């Protein structure tokens, strides 16, 4: 078991996929079971033909499930189908860093 400090709460103990969060007074707040399934929540991409030139942007999935493309100061809504096409090639976006969030279920 390992203790992990969490902001505004006591500690989180994780063992065998069980996560128990405690409040500052030590009383249990929630218990969740890790599922081993992860959901894609963000992709950082590079668009360009070389590492020396091009443009980096972020594609982020909102809590509502909608995807937003953040390119400089211009956020643009995206379709989920467009995220699957981030395989790169030529002048199209190539996935550079993918971020995932673990699925949990209440116990």
Overview of the structural elements:
The protein is mainly beta. Strands 1, 2, 3, 4, 5, 6, 7 and 8 form an eight-stranded antiparallel beta sheet that branches. It has one helix at residues 80-83, and strands at 2-5, 11-15, 18-22, 28-50, 53-61, 67-71, 74-78, 93-106. Residues 1-11 have low confidence and may be disordered. The longest helix is centred in the last third of the chain and has 4 residues, at 80-83.
Brief write-up:
The protein is mainly β.
Q: Approximately what portion of the residues adopt beta-strand conformation?
A: over 45%
Specify the helix fraction band.
under 10%
Report, as a whole number of angstroms, the end-to-end distance.
19 Å
Number of helices: 1
Mean pLDDT: 78
Q: Please give the largest β-sheet.
A: 8 strands, antiparallel
- Secondary structure class reads mainly beta
Rounded to the nearest angstrom, the radius of gyration is 19 Å
Task: Please give the number of β-strands.
Answer: 8
Shape: elongated
Task: Give the H and E element order.
Answer: EEEEEEEHE
Low-pLDDT residue intervals, each spanning 5 or more residues: 1-11
């Amino acid at each position: 078991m390992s203790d992990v400090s969490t902001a505004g709460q006591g500690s989180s103990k994780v063992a065998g996929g069980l996560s128990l969060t405690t409040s500052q007074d030590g009383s249990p707040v929630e218990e969740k079971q890790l599922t081993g399934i992860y959901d894609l929540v963000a992709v950082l991409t590079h668009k360009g033909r070389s590492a020396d030139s091009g443009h980096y942007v972020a594609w982020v999935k909102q809590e509502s499930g909608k995807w937003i493309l953040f390119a400089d100061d211009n956020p643009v809504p995206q379709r989920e189908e467009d995220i699957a096409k981030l395989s790169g090639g030529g002048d199209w976006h190539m996935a550079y860093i993918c971020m995932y969030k673990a699925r949990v279920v209440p116990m």
